[in-house]
Design brief:
alpha+beta, 9-stranded mixed β-sheet, 4-stranded antiparallel β-sheet, 55 helices, 33 strands, about 50% helix
Length: about 1550
């Protein structure tokens, strides 16, 4: 057991560097700068500036890769040695037919390898047993003392290890000349000890079962049969870990198999040969009837089908050459040799069960060389997403927590525990060495197919881009044309937790750089180059078994070793955690390894700088000793750079020269040795054109370039000149030299390199002489600039001397720039910052001290003299104060022209500023001047605070401050008056304005107050003019005045009175609207009251009706042709109304003629070309259900308009015969285009007019209502006269008699009529029950129309009415044309009125009786009423359910509402008492006004008289226009209560 395996101690951290942006611009220069520090650790970490964040350029959807499989405990070298040892010893026992079961000691698996090593170190098994030192062995294995563990270890050693050790030592090998075991048929499919092969485990399952699970399980307990056969077990009765005797406990694989060694033969045996003669035979006995008796020697000879003599010779012991004691003779299953069990070493106590092989076969099997260890590719292909899901799932399941919460220290310790564990076998996958050329780099690449954004282009050209760094100018690899994958072309790495990269150094010992694009950290371990050989020595010393079979094991990247183990042997190791966005640099020959903390994505590449060249040459020699192939030819690289020295960086040229010199000297020595050998033939060869495998030394595998030795007779190979004796056995005369350059060409190339390398020295000497002025002559600026340009063109390094030259040039340029600013023109000098007098003297001294000859020094001296003269004049002027302002100003301007800041100029500036400020203050406060604003005054005060103090300035500043304070106070008062909720009367504002008249400052709030006061005075004048005018004011004028008065910040007494007048006018208009307008009417009140002047145009009428229905048509008086100004003149309104009446009458006549010409929708067919009616829905009415308007004669759908209800007609008499008075049925239909309002009765309108007369305001609706009333009264007078004529009176008398006759005659057959409706006799008597039923229906007709109160028997009543239709006859009166025509004209004019008059109904009945009954209309009305009856019943049921739910909800909420109301009342009771008093006065006045309009007076005559007088006084025109209204107004006062 190794100490420290469970407690991993992290090595110290490697250096971490954080370059600035300036340092970050030169990648290789910065790496060279940190190399002295970082190289001591082998690796270092670089954190880029925070803003450097390259975008991830990999196409994630198309990125697919196949990872490698890694089994962690096979990575660590010492653990792999132990596993290999277990494999060998398990194979040793398995070949002999036994399975290895590793025992447990102290609840831990016994480390058989360590036990074997310690026994060997302690002197061997015999010595330890002799000295009884097994307790010391247990102590060295770190077992606790005092538990007799030594004896237990001895028994395990004797049972498992000792036979294997004897076999390894060769003590039990049989010395005979027989042919060794050579049968490979079985071995080709052989899997050692039934353990899965290392490269055959499925990677995706991550099986936690051990590869060696079988051998790690505890041994099975012995059976009774085992105890009986083994006397040792029978005596000891130990059933623990295993027996205490050699060979005991190595259980046979199958106890049910027949034991082959102590053979029990059947009567007949069949033998099957598996090999022919000339090879070893392996036979299988096919047993049928087993006999318990042991086979004799004679029966065993039947094993082979040869002669008996051959059988007898074959069955003899290979050790003692005897064939006796055949019951103890073992038969080998591999080679058919025979051995006595007591002749074996060590001897066996009994015949073993199962398959057994002799020591010779075991030797052949176990001595086979092991296969080289390497990683296997997985079988599953991943995308980045699928691999990430797998990796995160594995880590979270392993640590039982989210992946980002696992500490890096925990993962690190667990990793080194797993790789050192024999028991646990954890498998992970690692997407390593993925070619970026094929899959795409993580960095943006300029030559990619897709277009790059500006940000991506910046990163694509950055030197830290791993695609760019290897080919930078300072990099050696840029001179290699081929794209070497992994070196010049980056490789990609997709890692998961525990996936590792083993100890290795880069190819050719180059630098490497790794960038972690994203993901969890990557843990690194590094060893400096100075300790590289020490690390190799330690690993070889600790695990010699691995290096014996694989000498170049460390170059295979498959072996780890615990850093603690290395550190304990003196190897310096550092570590670091590389996070996303960080670089890790490894230096030449610095061993490094590490593992991933979780799912991440990294990219790496190699690069080589000038300082790498010596290491690269040493690497080639190292490779030559190891016989390892080179990636490229180092000699070819040096010669290629030497061929073009002018393109090399200077540092690189120096390094190449040194390498080239060494290489030329070595080449001379080797070619001289070749001549001494006698090779004289030579030919030139362009080695760079040959493939690498055709120019590799057959001895050391190095790639030849400068020269190689070949043979004419052996053309297949060549050698480098270091192995000229290893080419072939041919004569030297047949060998010849193949060379790239002659020995004369190489010095020429070396000389060019020298010139390039030494050119810097010559240049540096010239610069040193110029800067130090060693020859006494200052160089011109142009000469110094030429030296700087030479360094740039020849790419000299950025040395200290070059920096001094650049600094000198910068100082000279700065001095020349300052001098030009002084001596140039005035405009140019004004834009440049001025120099102080001290700075001017310093400038002069600096120009004299610089190693550059500048002719501008004379100009500087002239400027200095001018400044000194000006300084004397300024001092004199300041000494004679007070001087004139003009003189001071002129001196100040002269000083500004000098371009130099003189101390006296500051004092002059102060004097000038004081004088200018005082002058501005004087002008601002002058009485005759324009008043300045507060901003100007504050600005003057701020300027006064900045200038220098003096008595006059302080006095002016105090006066200005006092004035500003007074002005701001009055501004605050004015602002309060403008913004206060309680407005102040005009007198208060006038007083404030008077107080501010003497303040010499412009005050904005005072000015606003003046304007408000002026507007208030104008408003008061307008109100007085309206109130004192000849007419009552119009409502629009009053509303405008109220709106203006409310916006004024002035308290106006008349405003409250005007608001009350407007409120009462709006109240009257609202009541009138409710009286006239239908619910959701599209007409305004004024439109309803005015005649419809465009009635004649059907299309115009309908389009405007639709526009009004959609809210698109808003003009009220457009049809009357009145403007807003015309509405203010009562006479214009009356005249326009009269003209509108006439136009309406003419228009309706024209419309009736037009609509009458249209075909009836009830007709069977319509002409396609004839004009048709259009309903309000926009469709053509057709078929049953169409109704014709009695006024405009147009047709409509019955369901689209409101239709009359037959059952809501005037109530019939008590007899059913009255139902046959069909002319009294309500069948009159007016369309919504003709009947625009509710058409109230005349009495209701007169009550509105009485209320209108009390208003002190004129409304257009009032004027229109007066005209409508006068028109209605005029029509009523004409109708009464017509009805009172003798002819009409007689007709009415006949109609009344006919009704009496119908009521007087009973009809007993009415029941049969109701059921069958087969008779048409109009005077037939009917059943009284039916009459009473219909009578009850009609008496409650008002409630029938309500959906909530539909009578249950209404459906049958409608059926009754339908049954009476065949009995209706007519006409019942004969109307002469002389009577009919005037009545029809009156009927038409009455239908145009938006007023309901009884005379209209009388005329309608008379006209109906004079014509046949319209059965089609009656039938249509009945059908529509049936449909409405069905819909009403459905709606009533739904309404009843809704009401029940509402009652339940209201019952739940009422308590909450009561509580909230009580709380709110209590909260308001204290705060609104005073407000309630004021509001009560206001609303009391409003209520009084409304009552005045709506409540009739008991004494009508005085009121009407007074109102008549006021009307005559205020509006004589209006009264004159409506003289006939006055007596009606008196009569309507009694009916006003109906409103």
């Amino acid at each position: 057991m190794e100490p420290g395996c469970d407690e991993f101690l992290p090595p110290p951290e490697c250096p971490v560097f954080e370059p600035s942006w300036a340092e970050f611009q030169d990648p290789l220069g910065y790496i060279a700068k940190i190399r002295p520090i970082a190289e001591k650790s082998g690796i270092c970490k670089i954190r880029p500036p925070a803003d450097w964040q390259p975008p991830f350029a990999v196409e994630v959807d198309n990125f697919r890769f196949t990872p490698r499989i890694q089994r962690l405990n096979e990575l660590e070298a010492q653990t792999r040695v132990k596993l290999n040892y277990l494999d060998q010893i398990a194979k040793f026992w398995e070949i002999q037919g036994s399975s290895l079961k590793i025992p447990n000691v102290e609840r831990k698996i016994l480390d058989l390898y360590s036990l074997s090593k310690i026994v060997i170190e302690e002197g061997g098994y015999e010595a330890i047993c002799k000295d009884r030192r097994w307790a010391r062995v247990a102590q060295r294995l770190h077992y606790p003392p005092g538990k007799n563990i030594g004896s237990l270890l001895r028994s395990h050693y004797e049972r498992i290890i000792y036979p294997y050790e004897m076999f390894q030592s060769g003590a039990n090998h049989v010395q005979c000349n027989t042919q060794p075991f050579d049968n490979e048929v079985k071995d080709k499919e052989y899997k050692p000890h039934s353990i899965p092969l290392r490269q055959s485990v499925q990677p995706s399952k991550f099986s936690s079962y051990s590869r060696r699970a079988k051998r790690l399980q505890p041994d099975p307990e012995p059976t009774e049969e085992d105890i009986e056969k083994n006397p040792e077990l029978k005596k000891l009765q130990i059933y623990g870990p295993g027996p205490k005797m050699m060979g005991l406990g190595l259980m046979a694989k199958d106890k049910d198999k027949t034991v082959h060694k102590k053979v029990t033969c059947p009567p007949t045996v069949t033998v099957k040969d598996e090999r022919s003669r000339g090879g070893n035979v392996s036979s299988t006995l096919l047993k049928q009837h087993l006999s318990p008796e042991p086979c004799t020697k004679t029966t065993m000879q039947l094993r082979k089908n040869h002669s008996s003599a051959q059988f007898i010779d074959s069955y003899i012991c290979q050790v003692c050459s005897r064939g006796d004691e055949d019951d103890k003779l073992l038969f080998c299953d591999g080679c058919d040799d025979n051995y006595h069990i007591f002749c074996l070493l060590p001897p066996l106590p009994e015949i073993p069960r199962g398959i057994w092989r002799c020591p010779k076969c075991i030797l052949v099997e176990c001595k086979q060389p092991p296969e080289a260890f390497g990683f296997e590719q997985a079988t599953q292909e991943y995308t980045l997403q699928s691999f990430g899901e797998m990796a995160d799932s594995f880590k979270s399941d392993y640590f039982n927590m989210p992946v980002h919460m696992v500490p890096t220290e925990v993962v690190e310790k667990e990793f080194w525990r797993l790789v050192s564990s024999i028991e646990e076998d954890v498998t992970v996958e690692y997407g390593a060495d993925i070619h970026s050329k094929e899959f795409g780099s993580g960095f943006p690449v300029s030559n990619s197919k897709r277009n790059l954004s500006p940000e991506e282009k910046e990163y694509a050209t950055s030197g830290w881009n791993l695609n760019v760094m290897p080919v930078l100018d300072q990099s050696v690899l840029c001179h290699i044309n081929a794209d070497i994958s992994g070196m010049k072309v980056p490789w990609l790495y997709v890692g998961m937790v525990f996936s590792a990269f083993c100890w290795h150094i880069e190819d050719h010992w180059s630098y490497s750089i790794n960038y972690l694009h994203w993901g969890e950290p990557k843990t690194w371990y590094g060893v400096p180059s100075l300790a590289a050989e020490h690390l190799e020595e330690v690993m070889k010393r600790l695990t010699p078994e691995l290096f014996d079979s694989q000498p170049d094991l460390l170059h295979q990247l498959v072996t780890l070793m615990n850093p603690n183990t290395l550190m304990s042997h003196g190897v310096p190791v550092v570590r670091t955690n590389q996070c996303a966005g960080e670089f890790v640099i490894t230096f030449p020959r610095a061993y490094h390894s590490g593992f991933n903390q979780g799912y991440n994505f990294a990219e790496a590449v190699n690069f080589c700088t000038a300082d790498w060249l010596p290491a690269g040459r040493q690497c080639i020699e190292h490779y030559r000793r190891l016989r390892r192939y080179c990636v490229f030819s180092h000699e070819e690289l040096i010669c290629k750079m030497a061929a073009f020295p002018e393109t090399l960086d200077l540092n690189l040229a120096v390094a190449v020269h040194k390498e080239m010199f060494i290489m030329v000297q070595e080449e001379r020595r080797l070619r001289k040795a070749l001549l001494e050998k006698g090779v004289t033939e030579a030919e030139r060869e362009a080695f760079e054109l040959l493939p690498d495998d055709e120019r590799q030394c057959i001895k050391c595998k190095t790639t030849c370039f400068l020269s190689a030795l070949a043979c004419y007779d052996c053309p297949d190979g060549l050698v480098c000149l270091s192995h000229i004796n290893d080419l072939c056995k041919c004569s030297s005369s047949r060998q010849y030299l193949r060379y790239r350059y002659t020995l004369d060409e190489l010095p020429t190339m070396l000389h060019k390199l020298k010139i390039r390398a030494e050119s810097f020295d010559a240049w540096a000497n010239k610069v040193r002489v110029a800067l130090e002025v060693e020859d006494g002559r200052k160089r011109s600026f142009e000469e110094l600039r030429a030296l700087e340009s030479e360094a740039r063109e020849r790419r000299f390094p950025n040395s200290e001397l070059l920096q001094r030259l650049k600094n000198c040039l910068s100082e000279v340029e700065a001095c020349i720039s300052q001098v030009l600013g002084l001596v140039s023109g005035q405009v140019a000098r004004m834009d440049t910052p001025q120099l102080t007098l001290t700075e001017l003297r310093v400038l002069l001294e600096q120009m004299g001290s610089l190693p550059c000859a500048m002719h501008q020094i004379g100009d500087v001296k002239d400027v200095l003299e001018q400044v000194e003269a000006y300084q004397a004049e300024a001092r004199e002027a300041l000494a004679t104060l007070p001087s004139s302002p003009g003189l001071l100003q002129s001196l100040l301007e002269r000083g500004q022209q000098l371009g130099v800041e003189v101390p006296e100029a500051h004092q002059l500036q102060q004097q000038v500023e004081q004088a200018q400020w005082l002058d501005e203050v004087k002008q601002a406060l002058a009485p005759s001047a324009h008043r300045g604003s507060l901003v100007i005054m504050r600005g003057l005060l701020v300027m006064g605070a900045k200038i220098a103090s003096s008595p006059s300035v302080d006095k002016a500043r105090a006066e200005l401050q006092e004035l500003l304070t007074i002005a701001e106070r009055w501004e605050e008062k004015a602002h309060f008056c403008l913004e206060a909720r309680q407005k102040h009367p005009p007198t208060t504002l006038e007083a404030i304005i008077r107080e501010t008249e003497n303040i010499p400052v412009h005050l904005p709030n005072i000015q606003a107050l003046k304007e408000a006061l002026t507007k208030a005075q104008a408003w008061i004048a307008d109100v007085d003019e309206i109130q004192n005018g000849d007419h009552y004011p119009c409502l629009d004028d009053l509303e405008g005045l109220v709106a203006v008065g409310r916006d004024l910040p002035v308290g106006l007494e008349q405003l409250r009175q005007l608001e009350l007048q407007v409120l009462t006018a709006h109240s009257w208009r609202e009541k009138a609207s409710k009286t006239f307008l239908k619910k959701n009417s599209c007409y305004t009140l004024l439109e309803v009251l005015c005649p419809c002047a465009d009635t004649g145009s059907d299309s115009t009428k309908r389009s405007r009706w639709r526009e009004k229905a959609l809210g698109l048509y808003q003009c009220d008086t457009e049809l009357l042709g009145l403007s807003a100004q015309d509405l203010r003149d009562p006479g214009s309104v009356v005249v326009a109304f009269k003209e509108g009446e006439q136009k309406e009458k003419e228009g309706i006549l024209q419309l009736r003629r037009t609509n009458s010409a249209k075909p009836s929708p009830l007709a069977p067919s319509l002409m396609a070309s004839s004009p048709t009616s259009i309903c309000v829905c926009g469709q053509v009415p057709a078929g049953v259900g169409a109704l014709q308007c009695d006024l405009c004669q147009d047709w409509f759908h019955g369901q689209c308009v409101s239709v009359p209800h037959l059952l809501t007609s005037p109530k019939p008499s008590l007899t059913s015969s009255s139902l046959l008075a069909w002319w009294e049925w309500d069948t009159k239909f007016l369309c919504p285009l003709c009947m625009r309002s509710r058409r109230p009765r005349l009495e209701t309108i007169l009550a509105l007019l009485v209320a209108l007369q009390r208003l002190p305001v004129r409304l257009p609706e009032g004027e229109a209502l007066q005209c409508l009333t006068e028109r209605a009264i005029g029509w009523q007078d004409r109708a009464r006269k017509a009805l009172a004529s003798e002819e009409v009176t007689a007709l009415l008398q006949q109609l009344a008699e006919l009704r009496q006759q119908l009521q007087a005659k009973p009809r007993p057959e009415e029941a049969s009529v109701y059921t069958s409706a087969t008779t048409c006799d109009p005077i037939r008597e009917g059943s009284g029950n039916t009459i009473s039923k219909v009578q009850g229906l009609l008496e409650n007709g008002d409630s029938v129309t309500s959906p909530e109160n539909i009578a249950p028997g209404k459906g049958s009543d409608l059926e009754l009415l339908s049954s009476l239709l065949p009995q209706l006859t007519g006409p019942v009166l004969e109307l002469p044309e002389a009577i009919r025509a005037p009545l029809e004209e009156l009927m038409m004019e009455g239908d145009l009125l938006e007023v309901t008059l009884d005379e209209n109904h009388s005329i309608w009945q008379l006209l109906q009786a004079g014509q046949p009954p319209d059965l089609d209309r009656i039938h249509t009305l009945l059908e529509l009423e049936k449909l409405e009856h069905q819909g009403s019943r459905t709606r009533s049921r739904a309404l009843e359910r809704r009401r029940r739910r509402q009652k339940v909800d209201q019952g739940r909420k009422v308590e909450d509402l009561v509580q909230q109301e009580l709380q709110s009342k209590r909260a308001r009771s204290s705060g609104i008492i005073s407000q309630v008093g004021r509001e009560e006065e206001h609303y009391q006045e409003k209520a009084d006004g409304e009552n005045m309009f709506l409540t009739p007076s008991t004494d009508h005559s005085p009121f009407l008289k007074g109102n008549q007088n006021s009307l005559q006084h205020k509006d004589s025109g209006s009264s004159a226009a409506c003289p006939s209204l006055m007596p009606l107004l008196q009569l309507s006062c009694s009916d006003e209560q109906e409103l």
